[in-house]
Amino acid sequence: MGGLEFVVLFISVIFFVFCYVKRKYRYWEDFGVPFIEPTFPKGNVGTAGKTEHLFELIKKFYNCLKGKGMPIGGMYLTIKPAAIALDLDFVKTVLVKDFNYFHDRGFYVNERDDPLTAHLVAIEGDRWRDLRTKLTPAFSSGKIKLMFPIVMNISEKFISRVNCDLANNTDLELGDYLSRFTVDVIGSCAFGLDCNGIDNSNTEFHIMGKKVFNRSGSELRRLFVVNFQRLARFLRFRMISKDISEFYTRIVTETVALREKENIKRNDFLNLLIQLKNKGQLDDDSGKNDGKITLNEVVANAFLFLVAGFETSSTTMQFCLLELANAIEIQDRLREEIKTVLERYDNKITYEALSEMKYLDQVINETLRKHPVAGILSRSIKNDYKVPNTEVILEKGNQIFIPVLAIHHDPDIYPDPDKFDPERFTPEAVKSRHPYAFLAFGEGPRNCIGMRFGMMQTKIGISCLLMNYKFSPCAKTKYPIEYDKTISLLSPDGGCWLRMEAC
Predict the structure, then answer these.
(1) How many Å apart are CA 467 and CA 502, to the nearest integer?
(2) What is the DSSP letter of 93?
(3) How do residues 187-218 score in pLDDT, each as one tens digit?
(4) What is the residue-wise DSSP string for 198-254?
(5) Is the peptide bond before 388 cis (omega within 30 degrees of 0)?
(6) 321-332, pLDDT tens digit by residue?
(7) Fewest C-beta atoms under 10 Å: which of 2, 16, 233, 380?
(8) CA 200 to CA 181: how far, in whole Å?
(9) Distance of alpha carbon 332 from alpha carbon 337, whole angstroms
(10) Would you state the pLDDT for residue 216?
(11) What is the number of other CB atoms lying within 10 angstroms of the CB of residue 480?
C-alpha cells in the first residue's frame, strides 16, 4: 500500500468513526429528550473519579435536566445512551410497576473467568429470581436475630479497643476502627472466621476487603467492560482482580469443607448457604425445593455479603458520627433515648431494645438520606420500552439510572436538603412524602435483601459508641463532608476524625 493510499484509508476510517459517533450522539436529541452534551470518547463520565464522584456528577445532571417537562433525561456512557429518571412516579414505574422491563441491573457477569461476579446483585433473569427466592428466608428477622450475639460480641471488643487507644489520644480517626469492626462482623457472619481485625488492621482479610472498593486501574478498561459486555466476556476480561477472587474462593471453600467434615453448625450466613448447597432449602423451611445451589454460588454470595455489608455499614456510621458531632442537640437527644430504653433491659443492648429506639431509626435514615452509600440505582432495559405519555423509546440493553443522591437532595422533596434533620423521618413526615422519595435500600422486588442485617449492625455500632462517648469536631474534622472520589461508594474524604470524651 502506497503512502497516498494509506492516508486516504486513514482519513476514511476517521471519517467513518466520526459519522458513527455523531449519529450515536443524536439519540436523545432525535426523541426530544433533554440531555447532557457528551464528549468523545467517555461521553458524560469523563470527570467521574477525578474532579467529582460519579454520584455527584449524576446529581448535577439531574439538577440540570429536571423541570423540562420529561420524566427522564439523557446522558451517554462512552457512546451508549443512558437515561436518568427525573420523576418519582416514573421511578416507581421502573422499580415496581413495569419491573419486568427493568429487572436486571446490567452489571458485568463472567462466571467462567470472574466467578465472584455471579452473585445475587449481578445475575439476571430467571436465575436471579430463583436465587432470590432461595436466599430471602436467610435474611428474615428470625435469622438476623440469631446472628445478633455474634455482632454484640465483636462490638464489645471494638469498644475495648477504642477505650485503650483513647488513653493516649482524645482525637481518633474512627473510619479505620469502624472498618475493622464491620470486617470482623462480616468475616464472622459470612465466612465463619475470627479475623481479629479490631486489634490488627493489617490482617489479610481487612486488606482484601479494602481493595475490593478501590477504583485503581484503567478507567477506560472499566468503561469498556461495562459498555461492551459480550465482547469483554469473549476476551475473558475480569472486573475483580485475580488475587481477590482466589483469596475469597480459598477461604470459603476451605471453611465449607471443614464444616461439612466436622459437622460444624453456626448461626451465621455461611451456615445457611451450606444448607442451600446440600439440601436446596433451609433446614426450617417447609416450602418448595427448587434445587441446590453450587459451591461457586456459595462463594460468590458470601463475597456479596462482604461487598454489601462491609464498607456500606462502616461509612454509614462514619457519616452519622460526623453529623452528630456537628449537631450536639441531636446527639444528646439520641444518647438520652438509648440510655432510657436500655434501663428497661438491665443496661444491656438486646435485639428487642434496639427495636424500641425510634429516634435512632430516624437518625440513621436521615444519615442515609443525606449520604446514601449507593448514590445511584442502575437498571438494564430488557426489551424496547416506550416511556409512558411520551414518544420516547428506551432501547433494549441500554441503562437507566435512578439518581438516589440527587433525589435525596432535591429541595422540592426535602426542603433545606443540606441540613441534618432526623425530624424528616417521623411517621407523619414520611407519610406526607412520595413513597419513592427515600431509596437508600432501593425499592421493589430487587431491593436490598440484607437491609435488616445492615441496620442491625449499624444500630449496634452507633448505640455502643453513644452509650460510652460524646463526640465533637477536632482540628482534623472535615465538615461539611466531602466525598472520596477514588472509592466506588460514597465515603467521607479524609476519614472520620473526631474528638471523643467518656460520658
Answers:
(1) 9
(2) I
(3) 888 888 888 778 877 788 878 877 877 655 55
(4) TT-TT-HHHHHHHHHTB--S-HHHHHHHHH-HHHHHHTT--SS-HHHHHHHHHHHHH
(5) no
(6) 999 999 999 999
(7) 2
(8) 11
(9) 9
(10) 55
(11) 7
